[in-house]
Amino acid sequence: MFFRGGSSSFVCLMMALVAAAMQMNVADAFIKQKKQYTPLLFFKVPAGTMPECDEMEKIIKSLEKETGVKVERLDIMRNRAAKSLYEKLVEGNLRSPFPLLYHRESLQRVYGLEDKDLVRSWTKGRLLPIENSKEKKMTVFGGDDDAMEDDMEDMDMEELEMELDEELSPMQRRGKEAMKRRMEEGRQKN
Predict the structure, then answer these.
(1) In which residue ranges of the chain is pLDDT below 70?
(2) What is the pTM of this model?
(3) What is the dihedral of CA 137, 159, 85, 55, to 10 degrees?
């Protein structure tokens, strides 16, 4: 009698363990897999919101298939952390059209819709051209446009540098000044 009652509790215990194991397997299927690190970030908006993002998405998908690279997509309209990171990356940048491709290791950015060859170079971490290939030089009649353009560029860079300096801590400011001195000393030696 004792054995028989003990076996029924044993059977109940075994059934409970099997049920728990089955629930664990079901739960594992719903747990998100950890994302694999990739240095490539694509800041975008939901599909259909902006045609440039949709076109860039097509380019990136085709490059992922061709080269086997993975690009992490960050939707700035649905993810606050992605929006915050995007704002930090474009902070102080006068030209920041959307979408943005950012390479974490080479620190290079591709702004707006670009051709597939440039995006392929970006995925490989190659050095990208400084100027945007789609920007056209404006001609100003009635004056020396190069001199005026240089003055505007100098003024903008000075203003930008002053704004950035205001945000530095005293220690960061001293470090920046020391770095400038070392660079000037290096130039004088050469």
Answers:
(1) 1-6, 19-34, 93-96, 130-157, 190
(2) 0.52
(3) -10
CA distance 47 to 73: 12
In this structure, what DSSP letter does residue 77 have? T
Give the helix/strand (H/E) hosting 109.
strand 109-111
| Residue 74 dihedral angles phi and psi, to the nearest 5° | -125, 115
- What is the Cα–Cα distance from 145 to 30, expressed in whole angstroms? 62
| Residue position matching structure tokens 């990739």 | 38
What is the distance between the alpha carbons of residues 102 and 90, in angstroms, rounded to a whole number? 10
Which residues face 74 on adjacent strands? 43
DSSP 169-186: -HHHHHHHHHHHHHHHHH
CA quadruple 106, 112, 117, 123: dihedral sign: positive
